[in-house]
């Protein structure tokens, strides 16, 4: 995962979503 991508996701989901992406980016992609 690119750090820049994670930063963008954090901006999209400032609440729990960002944490889920950082901890499990694959899980986030599957959910999305």
Question: Could you walk me through the main structural features you see in this protein, from its secondary elements to its overall organization?
Answer:
- The chain is mostly helical and 32 residues long.
- The chain has one domain.
- The chain is built from three helices and no strands.
- The protein is flat and about 15 Å long.
- The two termini are 16 Å apart.
Tell me briefly what this model is.
The protein contains three helices and no strands. It has helices spanning 3-12, 16-23, 25-31.
Secondary structure layout plus pairing:
Layout: H1 3-12, H2 16-23, H3 25-31
Helix pairs in contact: 1-2, 2-3
Write out key terms for the chains shown.
single chain, 3 helices, mainly alpha, 32 residues
Choose one word for the global shape.
flat
Pairing-aware structural class of the strands and helices?
A: mainly alpha
Number of strands: 0
The amount of helix comes to over 70%
